[in-house]
Amino acid sequence: MKKDWPLWEVFVRSKNGLEHRHFGSLHASDAEMAIKNARDVYTRRKEGVSIWVVESKNIKASNPDDNTVLFDPADDKAYRHPTFYDLPDNVEHM
Amino acid sequence: MSSNEIKNLENIFNEKIARDEKIEPKDWMPEKYRKTHIRQISQHAHSEIVGMLPEGNWITRAPSLRRKVALLAKVQDEAGHGLYLYSACETLGISREELYDQLHTGKAKYSSIFNYPTLTWADIGAIGWLVDGAAIINQVPLCNTSFGPYARAMVRVCKEESFHQRQGYEIMMTLCNGTKEQKDMAQDALNRWWWPSLMMFGPTDDESTHTEQSMKWKLKRKTNDELRQQFVDQTVPQADILGLKVPDENLKYNNDTGHYDFGEIDWSEFWQVVKGHGKCNKERISARKNAWNNGKWVRDAALAYADKQESRKTKQAV
After folding, report:
1. pLDDT tens-digit readout, B97-121
2. Among A20, A23, A90, B38, which residue carries the largest CB count within 10 Å?
């Protein structure tokens, strides 16, 4: 039987105070090996202080075809931004 | 999808690229864009992986511990670069297995430069200086290419590549400041690697079939000949500093153009090597195949272990 090592997505926190960011993916037989491989592939020069791995099949992504439905409604909601509100110039600290 | 709808999607796609917007894996893309990217990114990944072989040849024979750790780190970087690129390529819907298979069966190409042998320690210097130097010139513009995962991989690759070139030049420097024998060795390495390095930029512009389309997709920002000229212009002064002679009787600085004129490249040699008749083509592919086949039991064992751990967890849960 031919079976390949599953694909994992790798997230790395560059330093404390920053969020984990997607770095790329790699193949590994299990989560433990995925972390070890991620260490060797993505952090050879102290690029991180923490690694997350998630098996790629467990990530559900939105479809770019739905972008209009998902994101366009924000277009006509300018009132969510501070610049929407008119204030006289002499009002300070606001 | 009707042909009209596809035309429309293609227009939106082309406008996006013209605006310098990136294309991400799940976005609609023309089939030709997908195929061209799979071809180029995989070829690039294969080159990194096969590129470990000529240098790996010298790890055990590096002349000092300092040189040895540097070479080890460089070869490990090449492995890393191959992996960044394979994973970028897989986002286009091709599996790692298929990619390896294409390399092992000769369906996919890799850079011909790695089909030349590394005969002396000076070759390690020349590879770092010239081959990595040429690779940097080819790769820097790719950091801005239109396909997001490829561009991101290239940013990481380029950051790491400059140490490769510097360690190579330092090796050349040391040899050139050494005994006559050592300097001759450096000259001999330059003699053998100079022309193959110029060939790394690919056929001349009038022979290159993919250039126009690749320019549109920002897979290329400059033509092969422009990049080659840039390489010659920046490398010749570096050879002068080493006190080495570039093996080209026609090489001459042109005051009018501000560039070096250089001799004709032997394209018959280039095509010979591309077609598989270089000195090491067979050796390189068989080394890759052996590594893959002999590693099979390790891959299987790791999977069997993972399955066992998983089933143990399930049992404990019950």
Report:
1. 999 999 999 999 999 999 999 999 9
2. A23
Of B24, B80, B303, the CB nearest to A3: B303
**Is A78 part of any domain?**
no
A6: DSSP letter: P
Which structural domain range is residue A44 located in?
Answer: 2-62
Q: Is residue A14 part of a domain?
A: yes
The ipTM value here is 0.89
**Residue A53 located in a structural domain:** yes
Q: Mind telling me how many Å the CA of B90 is from chain A's nearest CA?
A: 9
Q: Is A68 inside any structural domain?
A: no
Instruction: Compare A64 and A34 and report the one with higher pLDDT.
Output: A34
- Token pair 């931004």 in the structure block, residue: A81
Predicted TM-score (pTM) of this structure: 0.93
Check which CATH number belongs to the domain holding A41 and give it.
3.10.20.520
**Interface contact flag, A64 B28, Cβ < 8 Å:** yes
Domain total of chain A: 1
Indicate the pLDDT class of residue A1, thresholds 50, 70 and 90. very low
Q: Check CB contact under 8 Å for B306 and A44.
A: no
Cβ neighbors of B218 (< 8 A, separation 6 or more) are B17, B20, B144, B145, B146
